[in-house]
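> tool_call: predict_assembly(chains=two)
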Amino acid sequence: MDQFDSTTQYVAVLKQPLWKLARVRRWIQNVSFHLGGVAMMAVQLAREARGRWETSEIIRQMDALGVQSISITSLTALFTGMVLALQTSYALAQFGGKLFVGRVVVLSICRELGPTLTALMVAARVGSGITAELGTMAVTEQVDAMRALGASPIRKLVLPRVVAVTLMLPVLTLLADFLGMVGGLFIAVVEVKVGASFYLSTVQQSVHLNDVLHGLFKTPFFGFEIAMIGCYNGLNASGGADGVGRATTIAVVVASIVVLMSDFFLTKLFLVLPLGLK
Amino acid sequence: MTFSETAVMRFVRADRPAGAPIIEFKRVLKTYSSHRVLDEVDLTVRRGEVLVILGGSGTGKSVSLRHMNGLEQPDSGEVWVDGVEVSRLPEEELVAVRKKVGMLFQGGALFDSMTVFENIAFALREHTRWSEEQITARVGEVLGFVNLGRDVEQLLPSSLSGGMKKRVSLARTVALKPEILLYDEPTTGLDPVTGMTINRLIVDLNERLATTSVVVTHDIVSALFVADRIAFLQNGRFVFIGTPDEARASEVPDLHAFLVAGESREMSTSKGGPL
């Protein structure tokens, strides 16, 4: 009996790492399946993009997904600029470089924080919105109805959203860059007691067009990723309200991670390629 | 309406000549998670008839219907629709088939961001080069088919009742003048009176528009009212295919149980008792 107990315990201990390994394997399978699905949808989108584009629907989506995201991305940029000015002025004070707060704030905003934070906010607001909308359409058979009426959901639903987000994210980022700089200026003047004209002149001297473009060039890629992941999860949602909720959560998580990961690779790519974006 | 009344109505419509096959299933196999939902089934739908696919919940009725316009593709076997093998066609090539095959979904599946007018005009804008005047005229015409007035055109689906949603959805389905109409549980979730209105519409549209109809239902009253033939699906196979009269005489136990349940429901309805 004792021997049996110890054997089962031994088997249980042996099985534990295998079980964990199986979970990891399943996780990798899920991620691969997910990204593969998005890639296949991108191929389908490229094929369908050759057909007629519905300009009015694209403009409607640019308003719904882009223009109506202005408040959330602007607030994020403004407060990021402000907190960045506070933190950097504190750090720079230790080296007597407090006066150069503008240079650090604006460079950080333009090259990295503006595009990335805007993309993350858009992933949260727009990515979830797209998934919830298309997911509800999928579980109420509206997507099937569209197919049954001989229309392509990729062309009617995915294309306008992807084009809208891809075009609007650079615009939102440009606005965020400007507001981040304004936020930094406000704190520099009020808290750090740096003159506004000095702040602006340091910005002018040290921040070049390349810095702005370096950040800006990444944003169409982010926009494309966010919209594609949102659409893919929405169109593949199943299982009623619960399924739509799950799909929405997954879409936001995946889109945020993909934005951050692709940010690294795009930055590296722009630094390596001879595009003049260093 | 009792069984005898529906039998009389069937007698009136039963002698319509049966046409050539318009939809054919040849050894169609469909599995979900190793469960054989359709187990190498054969089925023929003849031009001009109303075929009812009857069966319990979860027996694969809707799945079989969704194979008829390529919304689902079989694991093996062939699905022929009006001379075209649709089971291996890519989405782009299915468009031509889908223009000929209209489908009414269980919940109506109206696009909730569009008005009734835009819903009905959707397929017309997608597949025709009609002017707005022509589209407006056609929308009014098909709303008339389903006994709705032009006053509903600007309403959103959220402000329609269940029966109205089904009727608008039916109007959207027939707008493009399809040759085949597929109905997925057309009377489910409706009160008996509205359900009967939909049943009458199915029969009426089939005759007026000279279409072929396939109706999936578990509502035996509806089935006996609209069917020229009934196909009974059980355990992934059609265990009975025949006329309503043959169905009544059938010794397939589950089909018999369906008929008995339907009869008792009819009697309780005629006595004014609860359904």
